[in-house]
């Protein structure tokens, strides 16, 4: 098993590597015209982009990537469709403009995203919504936005499974 | 000429009805999958009363800019907390149990087949 920090991206040879590739693409994206990045908005001192769920006591705002993968019967199962969900959560409510600015960067990073460097993955349509205000027992001071991108993967992890001739 | 127009109008109407029926059938497949996921409740399963399960509904078929669509959802706000995740002020933890989205993804193929089956049946009905 490769430590996440040792994964050289782009890489689609495992689910972990796919996450690392997408995360790296988001962190590296510079939004024109000023080259705004997630780090420049949220501060480069701590990690603000998490996979699956935020760790305990994480500072706000943070972003969270979550993939739902599904293989259909077509293409012998080698082609996968996936939903990439990205949430940006801020607290308190005054962080909403910052949350929206972060999600603008997410849009720039993944709209029309295509990565042919390892296997192939590309994004298709996306939706973006503001998460409604929650009530107890959820923290009502948290604000958030959510984007869902449809992705198509031809990951190396699947094509490498072919039996040797 | 009049007969041809009548045929065209009939085809358009039947096509619209076939799409609506197809979407209703596809939504039923997704609804069943969501209900299966909700059967055990959101956490330990010790206090399941079936309130969310019984609230799963499909809306009417709508015409959108991309074509016809149907929505599946609930009017219970706390189902949204669990689905999207929330910082729970009582447990002081981040909590999330996704059921709807995985159910929609995993049943997409079956829903698509149900749509095709009902669409063809409506279009070819005598």
Quick overview:
Chain A has 165 residues and is α+β, with helices and mostly antiparallel strands. Chain A has helices at residues 15-28, 38-42, 96-110, 156-159; strands at residues 49-51, 62-71, 80-90, 114-115, 120-130, 143-154. In chain A, strand 2 and strand 3 form a beta hairpin.
Mean pLDDT of chain A: 88
CA radius of gyration of chain A: 17 Å
Number of strands of chain A: 6
Taking the sheet with the most strands of chain A, its summary is: 6 strands, mixed
For the largest beta sheet of chain A, what order do the strands appear in spatially? 1-2-3-6-5-4
The first-to-last residue Cα distance of chain A is 27 Å
Write the layout of secondary structure elements.
The complex is a heterodimer of chains A (165) and B (126).
Chain A: H1 15-28, H2 38-42, E1 49-51, E2 62-71, E3 80-90, H3 96-110, E4 114-115, E5 120-130, E6 143-154, H4 156-159
Parallel strand pairs in A: 1-2
Antiparallel strand pairs in A: 2-3, 3-6, 4-5, 5-6
Chain B: H1 2-38, H2 51-54, E1 57-58, E2 62-64, E3 67-69, E4 72-73, H3 77-84, E5 86-88, E6 93-95, H4 100-106, H5 108-124
Antiparallel strand pairs in B: 1-4, 2-3, 5-6
Helix pairs in contact in B: 1-4, 1-5
Task: Kindly describe this structure.
The complex is a heterodimer of chains A (165) and B (126). The longest helix of chain A has 15 residues, at 96-110. Helix content of chain A is 23%, strand content 30%. Chain A is globular. A six-stranded mixed beta sheet of chain A has the order 1-2-3-6-5-4. Chain A has 165 residues and is of the alpha+beta class. Chain A is built from four helices and six strands; from the N terminus they run ααβββαβββα. Chain B has 126 residues and is an alpha+beta fold. Chain B has one domain (2-120). In chain B, the strands form three sheets. Chain B has a two-stranded antiparallel ribbon with strand order 1-4. In chain B, a hairpin with a 4-residue loop joins strand 5 (86-88) and strand 6 (93-95). In chain B, helix 1 (2-38) runs antiparallel to helix 5.
């Amino acid at each position: 098993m490769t430590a996440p920090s040792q994964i050289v991206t782009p890489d689609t040879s495992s689910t972990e590597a796919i996450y690392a590739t997408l995360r790296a693409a988001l962190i590296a994206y510079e939004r024109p015209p000023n080259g705004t990045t997630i780090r420049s908005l949220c501060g480069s001192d701590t990690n603000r982009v998490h996979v699956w769920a935020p760790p305990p006591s994480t500072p706000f705002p943070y972003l969270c990537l979550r993939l739902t993968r599904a293989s259909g019967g077509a293409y012998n199962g080698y082609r996968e469709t996936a939903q990439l969900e990205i949430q940006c959560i801020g607290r308190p409510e005054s962080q909403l403009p910052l949350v929206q600015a972060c999600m603008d960067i997410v849009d720039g990073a993944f709209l029309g995203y295509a990565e042919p460097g390892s296997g192939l993955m590309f994004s298709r349509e996306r939706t973006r919504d503001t998460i409604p205000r929650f009530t107890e027992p959820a923290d009502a001071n948290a604000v958030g936005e959510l984007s869902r991108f449809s992705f198509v993967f031809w990951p190396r992890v699947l094509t490498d499974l072919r039996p040797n001739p | 000429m009049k007969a041809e127009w009548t045929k065209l109008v009939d085809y358009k109407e039947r096509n619209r009805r076939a799409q609506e029926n197809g979407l209703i059938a596809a939504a039923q497949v997704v609804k069943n999958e969501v209900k299966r996921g909700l059967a055990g409740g959101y956490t330990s399963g010790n206090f399941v009363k079936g309130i969310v399960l019984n609230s799963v509904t499909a809306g009417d078929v709508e015409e959108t800019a991309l074509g016809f669509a149907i929505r599946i959802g609930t009017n219970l706000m706390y189902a949204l907390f669990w689905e999207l995740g929330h910082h729970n002020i009582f447990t002081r933890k981040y909590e999330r149990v996704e059921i709807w989205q995985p159910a929609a993804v995993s049943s997409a193929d079956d829903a698509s087949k149900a749509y095709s089956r009902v669409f063809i049946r409506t279009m070819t009905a005598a």
